Amino acid sequence: MIPLTMLELHIQAQATIDLGANPGSALRGALYNTLRAMYDTGAKVQSPDDADANPVAWLLALEDPSQHGGKDVPRPLGVRPPLSSAASKLAFGLAFYGRAREQIPMVLTAAYAMGNVGVGRGRQRFQVASVEQVDFLSGARQTIMDADGKQISALWSPPPAETYVEAARQLEGKPLTIRFLTPTRIVQRGKLCHHPQLRPWLQRLLERIRRLGELYTDDPPWVPFKELLNASETVHILKDKTQWKDMRSGSRRQGRTTPTGGFIGEVTYSTVPSPLLPWLVVGQGVQVGKSAVKGNGWYRIITG
C-alpha cells in the first residue's frame, strides 16, 4: 500500500475565515502561492526523481509528457478541507504520500507563513494554533507542533500494509456504507458518473494507488486490476443518499475555471468481496477521482 502521513492543522483568526464555496481549492491555492514565494527555484520538474531541483513543483506541479491522457500526474500531497468553511477556528488536513513525507518541514513552514498572507474571501489572516498527526484508521492523534512552530513530538511511521488488511477484516460479510465527504468526480469512458456505482470509482481508485506508488515509493503495490474489477461486478447499491454538488475551481496558471463538482453523501452497498476491502480502506487516505489535491474525493467508511 502507499506509505501515508496525515496531518491536521488547527488555525484561528480574530474574524471569520471564509473559504467560500470551494474550501479545498482556496487552501490549496494559498498554500501553493506561499510555497512558490518561499521555496520555488523556477526549475521545471518532469521526473519523480527531481524533488531536489524544485520541491514545490515536485509536490504540486509535476508534469510527465509521456503520461497517457495528459501530462499532469497525481500529486503526492492531498488536501482535506474543513467541512465547515466559515468560522474563526478551522481545521484542515494535509496527506503526504510516499516520499512526500520528506517535504513536511517545508510545507509546515509555509503553512505558518501563510497565516500572514491570509486565505479565503478578504484574505483573512490567521495563526496556526497547532499541528497534529492523525491515524485515520484508529483515530489516534498526537500534537507535533505548537503555536510557535516548535516541534514537540516526532512523527509516527506510516501505517504498514498489515494495518489496512486488519481493518478490512472488520468489514467482511456485511453491507458497506461509505460517506463521500467532499465532491467525488469520476469520469468513465469520457462521461461523468453522477451516481456512486462501485466499479467506476473503484477503478479510478486502483489506478490512483498504482500511479502514486510508481511515482513516489520505492516499492509500488501490485494491483490485480482484472480480479478486483471483476469481483466488483457482484456488488450493487442497496441505498443511495448521495446528491450531485456543482463546483468550479479557478486556475491562475490556466487563466480559467474548471468544473470540479461531484457526488457527495452516503451510499450503502451489498456485501463487498473481501479482496476489495483493503483497497477501499486505504482509499480513505488517498482520496479518489479528479482534483484530489484540492480536497475532492475524500470519503469515510461508516462502521457504526
Descriptive notes:
The chain has helices spanning about 25-40, 55-60, 105-115, 160-170, 200-215, 225-230, 275-285; strands at about 5-20, 75-80, 85-95, 125-135, 140-145, 175-185, 185-190, 190, 235-240, 245, 250, 255-260, 260-270, 300. By secondary structure, the protein is of the alpha+beta class. Strands 2-3-1-4-5 form a 5-stranded antiparallel β-sheet, covered by helices on one side. Strands 6, 9, 10, 13 and 14 form a 5-stranded antiparallel β-sheet that branches. It has a two-stranded antiparallel ribbon with strand order 7-8.
| Number of alpha- plus pi-helical segments | 7
How far the N terminus sits from the C terminus, by CA atoms, comes to: 25 Å
CATH architectural group of the largest domain: 2-Layer Sandwich
Q: What does the largest sheet look like?
A: 5 strands, antiparallel
Summarize the structure.
The chain has helices at 23-39, 55-60, 104-117, 161-169, 198-216, 225-232, 277-286; strands at 4-18, 77-80, 86-97, 127-134, 141-145, 176-184, 187-188, 191-192, 237-240, 243-245, 248-251, 256-259, 262-269, 299-302. With 304 residues, it is an alpha+beta fold.
